Amino acid sequence: MARLENAYTPDLRGYLEMLEREHPEHILRITAEVDPKFGVSGIIHRLEQDGHSPVVIFDNVKGSKVPLVANMHANFERLRLALGMEKGTIAEFVAECSKRQESPVDPVMVASKDAPVHEVVITGDAIDVEALPICTYHEKDAGKFITAGLAVMRDPDTGINNVGIYRHQVHEKNLLGVQLSETADGNVIWKKNERRGLPTPIAIVIGHHPAFFIGSLAFSTLDDDEIKIAGAMLQRPIPMVPCKTIPLDVPADAEIVIECEIPPEIRRLEAPFGEYPGTYGPERMNPVLEIKAITHRRNPLYQNAFVAHSDNLLLSGVIRSSFIERTVRIACPTVRAVAIPRAGRYRFMCYIAIECMIEGEAKAAAMAAFVADPFLKYAIVVDHDVDVTNDAAVLEAIACRVRADRDIFMVPYAKGSPLDPASYDPAGGSHLVTKMGIDATRKSNYPDEVAVPGALSLDLAAFIPGYGGPGRLRG
Ligand SMILES: Cc1cc2nc3c(=O)[nH]c(=O)nc-3n(C[C@H](O)[C@H](O)[C@H](O)COP(=O)(O)O)c2cc1C
Ligand SMILES: [Mn+2]
Question: For atom 22 of ligand 1, which residue has the closest CA?
Fold first, then answer.
């Protein structure tokens, strides 16, 4: 089903050209001047409310000469097209991501003179990040935030690349903030360096192909190089170029790269910022990023993500089920399906369907899910005949098959998301939460379920002339 898409260059502008040519309904261009403060977010919010999810290209953002590409990941079909899949369900897409992740693709190094992202190099006093169309999204946001920067870092112990998206508040023209949540590998890399009194190099890559984003957000360990996973998603080596001022390599065909260093022991108040649960992430004393250089293409595109909305929720939402399923399979070989529901904001909940062979297996499956994904708060395990893509079916299994004292277990003071609105101290940004596993499978003493003998083989038309079948009583 997957089709190798060789017809366009595997970068942001190549993907946009492909959409324009083959799926033009996915692109909306706005040429009128729009305010980066609430103007951009206002338009996308209203489109979302009306059920529209195109990529929106803002040609004229007030105060910047750089066009803005917004809302790229708000639509599942576009994520699927990024893998070259013209058709397929979420489950098929996730299976394809999972398959590609098993065959990482090594990057290739290119010279600076051949790297589009090095066409323009800005250092020293000339650095001014505010030249970019960086937006303010929600009413109480502390300021402007870069929201779709793919941060490349390197594990100081192994030299292996890590990539994650972290928000960056603009503090000054050459100083950014960062929220490295306790759920992120990036947090571990920064702490490893800081404990040794060392700065952490970090390159913020802006503007790339959606398959690169999928690879970066795929679940992996610190020992998996996410540049190679991004290469696997794109099914070709990522061309990389050494940074100008820091010891890291970055994708040569990105639009913009902000080369930075996190100095040890320095903190600055960061946030509030409207976050993925739909609530504001609280002010915290967070590290800062000193900008050493900004490099970009001659006519760069800036890309953002609308956090707390589909653009953010879908992107790192749908793909997480594959890693959960692989981990649950270790605890429970008969796992049939894992779904991450929108109702849990694609983060907090997962539904796991198993064919229960051994008593206690459902709880083992729930525990494995918590091991796989630190964002999860609720792991709900059902029998394999329950449709985990249907919230009501899962709720019905809970209603009928759960005895709370026997089937629910809790893990208090566990590592979770510091943005969880129900953590031990949401206002302080605590990452300590309580996890809950629910075994909603039928137990061995579960009564027989009702059935009418012969009903399925009845020919209703013999009794109801003109019977119309499902949906219509009479044809
Ligand atoms: C649009 C968007 C914004 C995000 N912002 C943050 C953030 O500010 N801090 C954070 O720790 N994770 C954030 N995430 C989630 C991480 O990018 C994600 O957990 C990623 O897998 C982390 O990679 P790592 O574990 O390799 O560090 C964001 C995700 C998306 C899609
Ligand atoms: Mn990682």
Answer: 164
Verdict on whether the full-model pTM lies above 0.85: yes
Percent of the chain with pLDDT over 70: 99
pLDDT tens digits, one per residue of 343-361: 999 999 999 999 999 999 9
Instruction: Specify the ligand 1 atom closest to the Cα of 168.
Output: 8
Which CATH superfamily, name and number, covers 12-315? Electron Transport, Fmn-binding Protein; Chain A (2.30.110.10)
CATH number of 319-439: 3.40.1670.10
CA of 219 to the centre of ligand 2 (A): 7
**Any atom of ligand 1 within 6 Å of the Cβ of 169:** no
Q: Is 177 in the pocket of ligand 1 (CB under 6 A)?
A: no
What was the pLDDT predicted at 7? 52
* Residue of 166, 214, 307 to test ligand 1 pocket, by largest number of atoms within 8 Å of CB: 166
Picking from 181, 205, 198, the residue whose alpha carbon sits closest to that of residue 431 is: 181
In the chain, list all ranges with CATH 2.30.110.10: 12-315
